Amino acid sequence: MLFWIIACALVALIAALFALAVLRRGRGGVSAGAYDMQVYRDQLREVERDIERGVLPVEQAKQVRLEISRKMLEADRMAQGPAADGPAPIWAGWVGVACVLGTLLAAFGLYSVLGAPGYGDQPIAARYAFADKLYANRPTQEEAEAARPAAPSRAAPQPEMISLMKQLREAVARKPGDVQGLTLLAQYEMRLGNYVAGHRAQSKLIAAKGDTATAQDYTDLGEYLTVAANDIITRDAEAAFAKALDRDPDDERARYYIGLMMAQNGRPDRAFQIWDQVLRNSAPDAQWVPVIRENIPTLAWLAGQGNYTLPPSTAKVVTVNDVMRAMRAPMPQAREAILRDGLETLGQRLGAQGGPPQDWAVMIAGTQLLGETDRATGIYGEAQVVFSTQADALALVQAAYEGRWPVADSTAPAPDQAQIDAAADMTPQDRDAMIRGMVDGLVDRLRSDGGSPEEWGRAVASLATLGDSTQATALLIQGRAALAEDATGLATLNAAATAAGITP
Hints:
Elements: H1 2-25, H2 32-53, H3 58-80, H4 90-114, H5 124-136, H6 141-147, H7 159-174, H8 179-191, H9 195-209, H10 215-228, H11 235-247, H12 252-264, H13 268-281, H14 289-302, H15 320-327, H16 332-353, H17 357-369, H18 373-386, H19 391-401, H20 417-424, H21 428-449, H22 453-465, H23 469-482, H24 487-499
């Protein structure tokens, strides 16, 4: 309150002085010419007194009088002329006063809207204390989940997916320690929007793994808890991220969430330090990098780093291996995720400085995989001009344009003769272990990179033959999700599963 009293008093004093100066000019007074005449008359009287005292000779006094008289005539002429100064109109003074008052009122009005009247001082100790209070008073996981707003309506899962999820839940209930079943259950509960069920399944997975649980397992748990809590880092989520960092201090995803927690609880300085390191150490295509790049300039300003400059982006360039991965991914969304950013970077590089024939072929094949036929045709035309004198290069880009390059590995590699001979000499147990290893290799590749419908069906049937119906059911669920937009592929997968005794 004292601040407002002093501020208002100073403003009123300055405004009053300004208004008095403006109004006084409008009250008339002595003009410049009249003032000059008065000065010259005083000078003439001084000359007379100097003559009487004998300090000024008579001849010199005549010259001084003549000069002063000449100046008086000039001053009188100026005073009588049209350019003579006069008093300002009264209304002009009041207009000036009104402008002063209007400016003051506008300043107070803008401050009341844009400023922070009544806002107290923010010493660093008080800000740290406030941040500690925010940190200590975070909602619990249950409170945050209860306060989560209703999710927007989403397309209902297909009946087949509902049936498969029911089977997966029942399989996990029968074998609660099945690591693979719990892994898939947690992932698919999260994909279906069942966030609470998802993080509970992940907790059971970690319990089943015991001491073998990895940093990624704990980071997944923390992420699932955060999503379920409407992106609030609760104590439970923080504990999960802390355990992940105990196992792997370089887990950038866990560190990203710890930085987010600092930002949520009034410590932009710590959040900035963590996120800056995460940004510099993460792969360019990490999912958290765009979020950090968008928000870290604001964090830097709040942390007092006004001159902070974002590190240059090192966007990934797509390779032939990426194109082959995308060819094995039937879902357009998966192809988009694999290729889009890398293709844009490669396209910019080819446009600026060109590149070898394989880069052009990758650009053409990748663009066609994204369904951008017209763009691929344009790039192919440019490549024909660039490599017009190189027959081998023209053949490569033409094969890419016609879909003959690269050739995706749609089937598992056949065993060579040495492997067949070795298998014949194995004991039944060793042979089963060899088969299991081959099946596991196929399953791992399908889960990471996807594959053809025939591969999904063969893997499901192989797991069923090995007696692992739980993993077979789980893989069938994942395969159906991967082939959701391929009706023919779904039919092939379902037929293989039915033949193996796994009901779709």
